[in-house]
Amino acid sequence: MSGPSGAGKGTVVGGVLARRPETILSVSATTRTPRPEERDGTDYRFLSQESFRALAEIGELLEWAEVYGHLYGTPRRPVEDALAAGHDVVLEVDVQGALQVRESLPDAVLVFIKPPSLEELEARLTGRGTENAGTLARRTEAARGELEHVDRYDHVIVNDRADDAVTELLRILDG
After folding, report:
1. What order of strands is seen across the sheet that includes strand 45-46?
2. pLDDT tens-digit profile of 123-164?
3. How big is the chain by its Cα radius of gyration, in Å?
4. Counting Cβ atoms within 10 Å, is residue 51 exposed (0-12), middle (13-18) or buried (19+)?
């Protein structure tokens, strides 16, 4: 699953996990320092640069990228183990990551979570109270770039109402 910051990916995923707890949310790996409230193995798998690069080198990451000087990626083994056990697995990745996942797992179903409009996206980001004007402008510009790739996804969900978006994602998982 991909979508711009502020599109509501986390809200939709949270709704799916609440309604279908057997669905697995993949835990990404990163080289950035944990924030005080984050727990290793729950929020992220926090790795050293060396450990992360070693995993990438031997093909143990489904996707990975450098973002703002830190490495982020999806460990392959937990995803493949969960799929082999019959679970649906949701990965929350950027557009670049989704396309890498498609190369690694051709049967992956790519879902793009889209805001109803760029104006609504800006309002959501502003409402968080965590974005300064520069960050808001960068995120809005990034959203425009991400929206250019929606045709590469199997499904696009417009997240106008979170409950409707959750229901739509559950229908996709059932399909």
Report:
1. 45-46, 29-30, 70-75, 61-67
2. 877 777 666 788 778 878 888 889 999 999 999 999 999 999
3. 16
4. middle
Domains assigned to the chain: 1-23+88-175 (3.40.50.300), 26-87 (3.30.63.10)
Polymer length of the chain: 175
Instruction: Tell which wins on pLDDT, 120 or 62.
Output: 62
State how far the Cα of 40 lies from the Cα of 27, in Å rounded to an integer.
Answer: 9
Residue 165 burial (10 A CB sphere; 0-12, 13-18, 19+): buried
Amino acid in position 47:
L
The mean of the pLDDT values for the chain is: 93
Q: Give strand pairing partners of 111.
A: 155
Place of tokens 């926090």: 46
Rounded CA-CA distance 173/47 in Å is 31
Q: What is the DSSP letter of 152?
A: G
